[in-house]
Amino acid sequence: MRAALWLLALFGFAAALALFAGNNQSTVTLFWPPWRVDLSLNLVLIALLAAFVLVHTALRGLSALFDLPKQAQRWRAQQKERAMHNALLDALSHLLSGRFIRARKLAQGTLSQAQALIDSDQGPANVQRLQALAHLVAAESAQSLQDPVARDAHLEQSLLFAIGRDEQETREAIVLSAARWALVSRDAELALDWVDKLPLGASRRTLALRIKLKAARLARRTPQALDTARLLAKHGAFSASATQSIVRGLTLDLLSAAFDPNQLLAAWGRLDSAERQMPDVAMHAAQRLLSLQGDASLAQQWLLPVWERMVSQPDALTEPQQLKLVRTLEAAFGAAATPLDGLWLARIETALQNNPRDAKLQYLAGFACLQQQLWGKAQQLLSQAASQLTDTALQRSAWQALARLAEQREDAIAAHHAWRQAGSV
């Protein structure tokens, strides 16, 4: 549509020009005494137009002629700028390909070219960012070449160049690299200090959180490492199994760091509901509480969710976990200041009724009957469990309990046999 309008306008202008020039009888008279010159108006207009074009062309030519030195200078500056960018790209390529000496030389060449452009007042607008990146590449190469002195020098220079608002992302990259180098050097405190220098948004990125997690674990700051692992889990940084393994390990370390019941309760309070229901975590917490001579009834309460899971879903716990749960419950029942709760006895009996051939449940039920002073039933259950248990520790404990029961009823032969079986396991 636009082309058609232009074509119509051109035809209109041509028609108006033809009408004006075709019937124009006007003349222009020039008086230069004693001469007189009569010229056609059309000729005068054409001559003026030609003169304007000629003068304009001459002026443009002179301007281009006088501008040649500036154009040559700009061309040389562009060539230097392109060479600087190519050197930086080559340095990055060599760094990623493992040629660290070449990468450092090219980065230093980039810095020299950038300084030459700055000295000639021809530096590009992003020259500071280029210098910061070149120093970062040189520092990364020095880190790979085990040259900490050169690395720190380039690191300091890169931070000096990355101070503007436009260089914020570059500064964050430099800080993250410095934190990673400190972590490689096993300096966890320095790595955490570098991560703390990041802005709030950058410090919650996955890369920063990974560095923070490793540094916190290395520095044995278990609470901080646990909080960081939870954030990484929310970001989906690990698979479900890896997340569970990391969180479980950190919670176990947190519980192991408690040296009195109050500290253990405080550590338990830091855990969320999902972490408290982890079998290994709950059993370790209960064992730790019992070893610190804490409240045995509280340990039984911590073990209750794990027990319910084992009873309702036998495959939810592995065989070692089930054995550990039985031993932990036995210790909790034995350490209780009051007789065994009837609710626990009912739970164990119900589980045994649902699975009467489970030797572990027979053993635990027999021990519970011992706590309730049900000697006959305890002897029956422990005898069944002793002949079927595959775990040597539980089997030895069952024979020892049978030996004590036999001594209690003054059956020397049965006691001797039970002690002998306990010693041979």
Give the topology, please:
Layout lengths: L1 H21 L4 E6 L2 E6 H26 L1 H29 L3 H20 L7 H18 L3 H14 L6 H17 L3 H9 L3 H4 L2 H13 L3 H14 L4 H17 L4 H9 L3 H4 L2 H13 L4 H17 L6 H17 L6 H13 L4 H13 L3 H14 L3 H17 L3 H13 L1
Antiparallel strand pairs: 1-2
Describe this structure in words.
This protein is mostly helical. Among the domains are: 77-151 and 179-184 and 206-217; 261-336, no CATH class; 339-425, Serine Threonine Protein Phosphatase 5, Tetratricopeptide repeat (Alpha Horseshoe). The chain has helices at residues 2-22, 41-66, 68-96, 100-119, 127-144, 148-161, 168-184, 188-196, 200-203, 206-218, 222-235, 240-256, 261-269, 273-276, 279-291, 296-312, 319-335, 342-354, 359-371, 375-388, 392-408, 412-424; strands at residues 27-32, 35-40. The protein has a two-stranded antiparallel sheet. It starts with a helix and ends with a helix.
